[in-house]
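ingest -> validate -> predict -> emit
validate: passed (alphabet ok, no gaps, 361 aa)
predict: started
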Amino acid sequence: MGFILKWIFRLFLLLIVVGAGFGFYLTTLGPDPVVKEQRQMSEVWADYPFESHYITVNGSAMHYIDEGDPDGPVFLFLHGNPTSSYLWRNIVPVVAASGARAIAVDNIGFGASDRPDIGYTFVEHAPYIDGFIEAMELKDITLVIHDWGSALGFDYAYRNQDNVRGIAFMEAIYRVPNMSDLSTVPQAMFTAFRTPGVGELIVLGFNGFVERVLPFSVVRELTEDEMAAYREPFPTYGSRLPTLVWPRQIPFDGEPEDVARRVNAFIKWLPTSSVPKLLFYFEPGALITQDAAQRIADTWTNTEAVKLGTGLHFVQEDHPQEIGDGIVDWAVRNFPPEPAFDLLEFEDGTDDGAGDEVQPE
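emit:
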């Protein structure tokens, strides 16, 4: 018994070290340490004042919010780990107010969506996104994506190029490094998450992604109401399984092979794709640094990169207004509304001649 308690204590210390180390790593990537109290970039609301909707996909209910003009251009927001549509709560209203239809869905196993008995791997998540889009009959979509939601979104866009109008992305999975490419702290962190027994204790037992990785990856201090909203979907050991599977799905060194195959396919396609793309990047950033953003802007076809200031990984919590305004501005410039050609009729029922041939003088 003493041996078991000793190991539990050691693993608890490991959780603290991993969380603190990851936070230190993120906050010292830039030229100056990020001081949270001094970096409230824009007003952020903890409220989630949306009507909840549900639709059945592959036998399970997926929760989503649907704001704006039902006949407007469709913007589909996809989140990553360990978040939900709650991450987009301050951005969806900005996009919806432009006359668009803004939809944010909870991935299966996250938020208020069902938790079916599946493994929550990448290849199991993707059919739920496909099924959601099909069930909702969404056409000509602009994807707004982040974290693992970016991998799901890029993958969908690659396989359904005729149904994607544009892609706005931030802190996205645009490449897959080898484990040896990582610096010491993230390498130790991902090794711990992927080690049987250790990962379970950190992520499932202590809810490590919500309690440590999430708040350490936001510049400002998350409020108690916000943390409560992020904790709500994961009250128990078993409910947190999806948050553990995701870090084990990153195909470092080509494993898992099925994920690597899917991710490598869209990674090769993205730079040459003609679909309009918008990248938001931040200082210092986590998945996409300033140098990486510049390389993407310089080498990817039809890609615009916009820097929005100080940010780590969950940038929606620091720059929601700027992200929303940036999406609207980009969309207006790239997807102008089609002009209406309604015929004006005279009292006698004839048209106004707008379609008649013009005779030279």
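Confidence is low (pLDDT under 50) at residues 3-9, 22-41, 341-361.
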